[in-house]
Design a protein that fits this description.
15% helix, TIM Barrel, six-stranded antiparallel β-sheet, alpha+beta, Jelly Rolls, single chain, 14 helices, 44 strands, eight-stranded parallel beta barrel, 827 residues
Length: 827
């Protein structure tokens, strides 16, 4: 990594800033608020928070993720509570492993950070079914998120269960714990309109119910403009600087600053630049904000079947400051850290100062926060998307780049500009598995998923004379639901023909159709209802028709999203014959089977229910409905591990019995739409994308805690057909590090995982141009800089260089402020 020291932030001030990032655990504090800020023990505080979702990582990862958040200048962590993983069956609770919410909160507490608990219990979060357990859907008479007593009773029961747990563990601030805010409901205001008066009554009930739980800290409702008192309404979005709370006594809070965006199967990789994120944050605090949370600070992984959707990927990287595997994403992490240190150094002014703003026109403004006691702090903003401006402020001139904010913590010295990144850039690379005695290619076993009986309509678990909605039938215990029926045809039937068409009207996300034991076609339904049609051969006797409907994450957002149907709901399912006349099979006797035999037998487990009888003979490639198994040794070192599943089709993967999620590397992003990214101007997720023409997700995270010394097992279920011979394990690490800083600053180059700097690819002190990976020399530079940096860095895990003439030699640049650009290789 490369660490930049801020030349204008003195050591005394830096110590003061760092001391603001934590508090003493176990000391009871009183949390309240006024119209300016949260107050903790009567003192207004500036809160810089980041979302880390405990089930999207592992308990073993939590301490490192939380420490990196703290090192990055945060003083709080935020998470949703995910109802469906904690109460998978009604009144049966699970808080084990990475579901251990209490352990997660305590880990944050031990790090000396505050905690924001978003109970919801609706989460959205691109999480399966928005975090609702699907058994709710199966309750007769229930209606979600409205004035429905059945839903309200269940919601209150779970919310109270969580509150009682945190009270019993003394985790609320007034008990000496870290929790300073709790949230009820989530983003209901965005979709409230269609719920009408019942929706309004529901919001009022939510507020009263939450308040009755007596948590002793403020409650928030994000995106709820009509949030009743004492709820504090907050903002979510890419920009919230113009947001105004609905009550004069409510502080301006930003609960979700979207640091990037999520990926969907078949989509490109979305990115949001460090310049734009920091610009949005600086504007928010310039305009009176005092609590801001990054969504996400670490996105993580949708293990198992937790991804929402439909069609949301297993990776939930979100282009966050900590990447999916927990590595620092640079320069975003470092650029935001520098911003946090400056903001925290201005805390007194920002939460207590009188505010004055001067408008220079064309998007240029100057804002001063002047406290009664202490130093004033100032912001110079230029929100013109194309043109830099020269602002004259208090007798001095400041050049403020387009779409940026300059911060003057003493209203004189410009110590930070959102468009001028002086933090490192890291280029991450994948390294092949370096495990000892590991063969060049994995050795595979396999077994077929046994479906012959199912294709004959046998062994269904229940029957119906109608086509059932998939969630209602399965309770989402599996992605898969079989619909099985038979139809007797005779040559005398007017519509009979040997060659007919099977037509299925479905809302299933993926459909596989079989007639008389043979696959006749598969289709992906990208949205809403779609019609599947395939030519079939029909016999003048009994014909078995078997349809396999698959979900790929249930919807998680929108008005009445819980009612969005999945599966072959009502159909019709038809055979179309002579004269385009159809025979409707929708009211036939349908037999249903939930899931697959291999899942029922838990062949992915280290202790399957039955001997799976794996074989090594004649390894099939590109075969549907097939299980594959191999063993591997863990890669050496401590760097994050990924498995490359390029060559596989669609399915799910397990390591030592633990699911690492769905895979679908054959689903590629469009070939167009990627290119250069200009941070200037309002961001949207389609502006800065990569990965065109590539698999949406090729690499899948294998947490180190899933691995053991010696042999480990990888099991793949392949639904569509794939080639496992290309599968391999690699580690993720920093390959190239770069830094570009201005004179009188210091750059520290540091490799990851014990690797050393093996080469200086570029070094220039003068006026170098370009960016990491494409640096170029300018028209002037020091002739001594390269050798000085090479001597100081090569062969070391880290090195530090001051950007000064006395260290790097004199340049011929004259009065121009010198810059230092360095690019090094870690190996």
């Amino acid at each position: 990594m490369v660490r930049i020291e801020m030349g204008h932030l003195g050591s005394g001030l830096l110590f003061l800033v760092l001391s603001c990032l934590s508090y003493s655990p176990s000391i009871a504090t009183q949390v309240s608020h006024d119209g300016r800020a949260l107050t903790i023990d009567g003192q207004r505080r500036l809160i810089l928070s980041g979302s880390i979702h405990y089930p999207r990582s592992t308990a073993e990862m939590w301490p490192d993720l939380i420490q990196k958040a703290k090192d990055g200048g945060l003083n709080a962590i935020e998470t949703y509570v995910f109802w469906n993983i904690h109460e998978p069956r009604r009144r049966e609770y699970n808080f084990q492993g990475n579901r251990d919410l209490i352990r997660f909160i305590k880990t944050v507490h031990q790090a000396g950070l505050y905690f924001i608990l978003r109970i919801g219990p609706y989460a959205c979060a691109e999480w399966n079914y928005g975090g609702f357990p699907v058994w709710l859907h199966q309750m007769e008479g229930i209606q979600f998120r409205t004035d429905n007593q059945i839903f309200k009773d269940e919601m209150q029961s779970f919310t109270a269960h969580i509150v009682n747990m945190i009270k019993e563990e003394n985790l609320l601030a007034h008990q000496g714990g870290p929790i300073i805010l709790t949230q009820i409901e989530n983003e209901f205001g965005n979709v409230m309109g269609p719920y009408g008066a019942a929706g309004k009554k529901y919001v009022e009930w939510c507020a009263k119910m939450a308040d009755s739980l007596n948590v002793g800290v403020p409650w928030i409702m994000c995106q709820q403009a009509d949030a009743p008192q004492p709820m504090i309404n907050t903002c979510n979005g890419f920009y919230c600087h113009n947001f105004k709370p609905n009550n004069a006594n409510s502080p301006k809070m930003w609960t979700e600053n979207w640091t990037g965006w999520f990926k969907k199967w078949g989509g490109r990789d979305p990115h949001r630049t460090a310049e734009d994120v920091s610009n949005a944050v600086a504007l928010f605090f310039k305009n009176g904000g005092t609590l801001q949370n990054y969504y996400m600070y670490h996105g993580g992984t949708n293990f198992g079947r937790t991804a929402g959707g439909p069609y949301i990927t297993t990776s939930y990287d979100y282009d966050a400051p900590l990447d999916e595997y927990g590595n620092l994403r640079q320069p975003k992490w470092g650029h935001l850290k520098a911003l946090h240190l400056v903001l925290l150094s201005m805390e007194n002014a920002l939460v207590n100062g009188d505010v004055t703003t001067t408008d220079y026109g064309h998007g240029a403004t100057a804002t001063m926060y002047k406290p009664a006691n202490g130093t004033a702090g100032c912001f110079l903003a230029n929100q013109n998307g194309t043109t830099d401006v020269l602002i004259t402020f208090q007798g001095l001139q400041y050049l403020v780049p387009a779409w940026s904010v300059s911060i003057l913590p003493d209203c004189k010295n410009n110590v930070y500009n959102t468009a001028k990144i002086q933090a490192q850039t890291s280029i991450m690379v994948k390294k092949p598995n370096a495990a000892e005695n590991e063969p060049a290619q994995l050795i595979w076993q396999w077994r077929a998923e046994k479906i012959k009986d199912t294709l004959k309509g046998q062994h269904g678990s229940f029957t119906s004379t109608q086509l059932l909605e998939q969630k209602m039938a399965t309770g989402d215990t599996s992605d898969y639901l079989w619909y099985m029926t038979s139809v007797h045809m005779s040559k005398s039937d007017p519509i009979y023909s040997k060659h007919m068409t099977l037509r299925v009207n479905t809302t299933g996300y993926v459909l596989h159709a079989f007639v008389n034991g043979k696959l006749v076609g598969s289709q992906l339904g990208k949205s809403g209802n779609y019609i599947f049609e395939a030519p079939v051969t029909v016999k003048p006797k009994k014909n078995d028709i078997t349809l396999l409907s698959a979900t790929v994450g249930l919807p998680n957002y929108g008005a009445f999203f819980d009612k969005d149907p999945a599966g072959i709901v009502s159909g019709p399912v038809e055979l179309v014959g002579n004269g385009n006349v159809s025979k409707d099979l929708s009211a036939s006797q349908w037999s249903y089977k939930i899931g697959l035999n291999g899942y029922a037998q838990e062949v992915y487990s280290e202790n399957p229910k039955h001997d799976p009888k794996w074989t090594t003979e004649a390894l099939p490639l590109n075969r549907r409905m097939t299980w594959y198994k191999t063993t591997f040794k863990p890669p050496l070192g401590e760097e994050p591990v990924v498995v490359d599943l390029l060559g596989m089709g669609k399915g799910e993967a397990w390591v030592n019995g633990q699911s690492i999620g769905r895979f679908w590397p054959t689903f590629k992003a469009p070939s167009d739409g990627c290119g250069n990214c200009d941070y200037r101007g309002t961001y949207d997720p389609n502006r800065c994308t990569t990965g065109c023409g590539e698999p949406t997700q090729r690499w899948y995270h294998v947490p180190r805690s899933f691995l053991r010394s010696g042999d480990n097992t990888l099991i793949l279920f392949e639904e569509m057909g794939g080639n496992p011979t290309q599968v391999n394990f690699q580690t993720v690490t920093v390959g190239t590090v770069c830094g570009m800083i201005t004179e009188r600053n210091k750059v520290e180059l540091s490799c990851q995982g014990g690797r050393t700097i093996s080469q200086i690819q570029f070094a220039s002190y003068g006026d170098p141009q370009g960016k990491c990976g494409s640096f170029k020399k300018g028209i002037c530079e020091s002739s001594d800089a390269f050798s000085a940096i090479e001597k100081a860095c090569v062969g070391k895990t880290s090195c530090s260089i001051s950007a000064e003439d006395t260290t790097l030699g004199w340049t011929t640049c004259g009065v121009v402020e010198n810059r230092l650009a360095v690019q090094a290789v870690c190996s």
